[in-house]
Design goal:
The chain is an alpha/beta fold and 560 residues long. The chain has three domains: 2-183, TIM Barrel (Alpha-Beta Barrel); 194-520, TIM Barrel (Alpha-Beta Barrel), CATH 3.20.20; 525-560. 33% of the residues lie in helices and 16% in strands. The chain contains 21 helices and 21 strands. The strands form five sheets. It has a nine-stranded mixed β-sheet, sandwiched between helices. Strands 1, 4, 5, 6, 7 and 10 form a six-stranded parallel β-sheet that branches. A two-stranded parallel sheet has the order 2-3. Helix 11 (290-297) packs parallel to helix 14 (324-336). The longest helix has 34 residues, at 526-559. The protein is globular and about 80 Å long. The relative contact order is 0.09. The mean pLDDT is 88.
């Protein structure tokens, strides 16, 4: 993995890491081989690269710690900032080189290269001779400002450098010139390297709420609402089948029942088993079953650090059933116990008169506004469930300033045509029978309890049957399954900064949610992606041809 820092010590800010946390993070790299970017092999899981962007003067605070561990490192400087107030300069170069550091290039002015013409790009990438002379072993690597690049920028980078670095899931198919990196923050922990997202679909239908906008209610009968399917495999079976060795690393798993928000006693044992296997667990809950919630809050501290509640804030039902106080107490008790939470509202037209009251209540009891999802109508082509126009709906619910809502709206009814890694980096697994699907909607991959040493792989390529990825906040945002689509991190879509300056997500969960699984998996070569896509298209063409041939034969038989 490639680590990107900005500030060590100095003034506290968004990209700031304290000296104490930096020392802890470096200690966690003891089992890795730290190399320069030009030596980095993305397929060698032991490799780590330590980089610093911008060249802030407080980076000097990191030198004693790096020297203590014997780690090599690289500082990507911005030409026009070098030697100015608040940034390192020529006088700092000797001690940086003495500590096995190298100077590298972060462009001349730190402008977004994709917005420039070719001549401007060349100017940005050109390292002045007087700066180049300061480090004769450096300036062979580039870091793209704001992580972004395109084909034009890639070609220019290839002419001037031996490799280039992007970051946080924005890296694509540029090989050595789109190496992915992780932006490191104060709360980042190196040992929680997320390699997979696994949705554990629980085939239980009961729910103690009757929300009129519930997409489950669009499909199921009253009989199904009371049904609990039999599970073929025990919690221990699942924990063994999803061992960290078999998965290939740590996964973020999500427990969501068909009834979605009701935590049944049976489900608790599976949640505990997956936590015991070492993975992160997110649980969808309406947070009114106090006994079940408290059961999870009594787990060991190390397990609670890896537990997250997506708290479905069904305002109207909570008021109707007189459960608003119960919901609020359970949410806050979970947070106080060290479990991360995110309060989320499914918007509906009927909820609009309550918006101001919801805001006041949320700020008073949760310290921040709830996040907003998008309510879908599964009967009518997965459209937004509202009488408003798209623009009106976006304006009404956009006032909650939710990154989750903004991203979901940005991809709504935009069909995915690009290559998708669902079925490789992410799965949906039915707990009842162990069947594995590419995502929550389509494409069986295999069975969890096959004899394979690792999980089966079958990426979704480009044939998604749906009008858009309605769970894109997870498959695209958390995982990065469609590398061509940029998105906020899951940390941004789930966390909130409370009025007392604390976070909804506790430090370890923030660390797990801040990067995408794409950064810890190998992307196929472009040619292999295309072969997958053509294979699916050819298969579809063959099926259509055979269907047409069968129709023709039947037609001719009737005539004869």
């Amino acid at each position: 993995m490639i680590l990107t820092y900005h500030h060590i010590g100095g003034k506290k800010g968004e990209n700031w890491v304290s000296v104490k946390s930096f020392a802890q993070q470096m200690a966690e790299l003891r089992d890795r081989k730290v190399v320069y970017l030009s030596e980095y092999d993305p397929n060698d899981k032991s490799h780590a690269v330590i980089t610093f962007d911008d060249g802030a003067a407080d980076i000097i605070n990191a030198l004693p710690i790096l020297k203590k561990h014997g780690y090599v490192f690289e500082i990507f400087i911005v030409g026009d900032w070098f030697g100015t107030n608040g940034y390192i300069g020529a006088q700092d170069t000797p001690k940086i080189i003495a500590a096995d550091g190298r100077l590298q290039w972060h462009t001349k002015t730190h402008r977004k290269l994709t917005e420039l013409d070719l001549r401007e790009i060349e100017t940005e990438l050109s390292v002045p001779e007087d700066i180049k002379k300061l480090d004769m072993n450096g300036f062979n690597a580039l870091a793209y400002p704001f992580w972004v690049y395109d084909d034009k920028v890639l070609k220019a980078a290839e002419k001037n450098f031996s490799c280039a670095r992007s970051g946080n899931g924005f890296a694509g198919g540029g090989g050595r010139f789109s190496l992915d990196s992780i932006k490191i923050k104060e709360h980042t922990r190196m040992k929680d390297k997320i390699v997979k997202y696994i949705e554990l679909a629980v085939p239980t239908w009961p729910c103690n709420f009757r929300c009129h906008y519930c997409y489950v209610g669009h499909h199921c009968t009253n009989e199904e609402r009371g049904r609990v399917d039999k599970f073929r495999y025990s919690p221990q079976d699942f924990a063994a089948a999803l061992s960290i060795e078999r998965v290939g690393g740590v996964a973020i798993t999500n427990f969501c029942a068909n009834g979605e928000t009701l935590i049944l006693p049976k489900n608790l044992e599976y949640i505990k088993a997956i936590l015991g296997a070492g993975h992160f667990v997110t649980v969808v809950s309406n947070m009114v079953r106090t006994k079940a919630v408290n059961d999870l809050l009594e787990l060991p501290k190390e397990w609670r650090e890896r537990l997250f509640f997506k708290c479905s804030f069904h305002w109207l039902e909570l008021k109707r059933l007189n459960l608003l106080e119960t919901f609020t107490d359970n949410v806050n008790n979970a947070w106080k116990a060290g479990v991360s939470i995110s309060v989320e509202i499914t918007p509906s037209d009927e909820l609009e008169p309550e918006i101001e009251e919801i805001k006041r209540y949320s700020m008073e009891h949760f310290g921040a506004l709830p996040h907003i999802t998008v309510s879908r109508d599964e009967i009518d082509g997965y459209k937004i469930l509202t009488k408003h126009t798209f623009k009106e709906y976006k304006k009404i619910w956009g006032q909650f300033d939710s990154a989750l809502f903004d991203f979901k709206m940005s991809i709504w009814h935009k069909k995915v045509h690009d290559f998708c890694y669902a079925g490789d980096w992410a799965y949906s697994i039915n707990i009842a029978d162990g069947n594995i699907f590419r995502c929550s909607s389509c494409g069986k991959v295999g069975n969890l309890f096959s004899s394979r040493k690792s999980l089966p792989r079958s990426p979704a390529a480009s044939k998604c049957p749906f009008p858009h990825c309605y769970n894109g906040h997870v498959w695209i945002g958390l995982v990065g399954c469609v590398p061509e689509i940029n998105s906020p991190t899951y940390e941004q879509m789930r966390d909130r900064l409370r009025t007392d300056k604390t976070h909804w997500l506790h430090p370890r969960m923030r660390s797990a949610f801040q990067s995408k699984a794409i950064g810890n998996n190998r992307r196929y070569a472009k040619i292999k992606e295309r072969l997958f896509m053509y294979k699916e298209r050819c298969l579809l063409a063959v099926i259509l041809f055979l269907a047409a041939l069968l129709f023709f034969i039947i037609f001719m038989a009737d005539i004869l």
